[in-house]
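Annex B, item 7. Sequence and structure tokens for protein A, then protein B.
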Amino acid sequence: MARMAATFRVSRPVARHLAALYDQAFSRAPGNQPQRLKDLLYDLGHNEWFMKSMYMGCLRHELPAFIRGIHTGESLAGAQWTAEQIEEYGQTYLRGLLDMILSDEVAKTRTKPYETLLRALDVDGYAVVDGRVVAKDAAAPLVAEQRAYLEGLYERLGLIEQALAKKHYQQSEADYVNGVPGNAISNARHFVEVVLRNTARRVSQLAPPVLSDRDIRSQKAVHSYLLSTGFLSEAEYELVRKLYGILSGKGGHPNMAKQDEARLTRHYALITCEFVLLRLDNLTAPKVLDPVRERFVCLLDQRRGSLAHPPSLPTPSA
């Protein structure tokens, strides 16, 4: 694991759960917690404005709103900074708050919000080692960007059921963070279903006949259709079919914790969906011709009766 890099950015879900943990560890804990909070901030070198804002937020039970506002910029809006400076300074404040709370012994006793924050970091590709946030791999800083990119790609392609796709995607993440791994896996499967059936809908508009409503609701029929049109190769078809089988499995893996199983299967599901959507994007609005698109176009022409045989794909060594 690599130490947290300067590129680490606190995502909105992490900021939300960070705010909830501060609320439990300071606003709702017994004793003079507002003063303890201010003393901790002083020891870390924070300025008077920030210490006072956190102190008053703690006294008034407004600490969660203030911390969430640091992420959105609302809590820093009165400062004479540009929008870019507000965003960067906000991230600096949030990273400092994150480091502080992860090493606070009182916070660790608030088991549920503390563990929820750890799972939120895990979703973004980070872990906590010795009270410090570390990247699990070099791709960790890209996870939050990938989340936004995947949602935006679905929308940009103009596929229907956008609200349903977003609901399952976000609910799978929320279930994982909230420690409900079975539901996290189920919603990941539902997201895969929405992506595949609406990809098949779009492909069928390019390659008549259009899939029937009955077939479009059958994942087996959808998978077979995407194979028959050449949208998926044999190997890709097997990958999708087996992934769907894993996501639909009952009882979990006997040698793996359910939470770990949810983390891995969600990861596989999201990567597969991104692959399918990027393939569709390339086929419907190509920038350059490639072997996959050539195969697909030729199969469409064949189905329309203009070609007898599609060309074979070149071998990897070609």
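Protein B:
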Amino acid sequence: MDIVSLYWTCHSKNFDQLTTYLKDTQTKNSKNLIDLIINTHYNTFLNLYSDFKDDIEPVNSTIPNGKGLGKRIPYLGWYWRNLDFANKDITIGKIGSFIGFMATNKWDHPERKLTLDESNQIIKIIDEAFIESQQGGNLNEIYRSTVAVLENIWPLVQTFEV
């Protein structure tokens, strides 16, 4: 089940039905529900910041980045696709010298799963960026400090072997 399916399943229920349904789901499928929440949290956050806007430059231009590809977060495909952060089951792929996250492999590119250590490194960066995004103050400064952290994912992923 994805978050949209959960929403529409819950959408048509009144309070008592919804409470009963969610308690039943939690009891029968607590791992699935927890995975759904974790994956939605990480994927929604990354989707917000995954691409460069045309008029935005990297915060730290001294480190490798994907500005030329329009991507702040390295991923293969036209748009960000959801990854399984909850189970740390994250696939990367390679096209030429470019390495990025790859949720689907329609074109049979070289691919592999991240190791547990590599997954933890990526998640740590995302967690640091999320904390930055929750700081109060000037919105431009919050945005810059958030993306400054996220931009560290690009050079790290490029060091991974595929």
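Comment on protein B: The longest strand covers residues 91-95.
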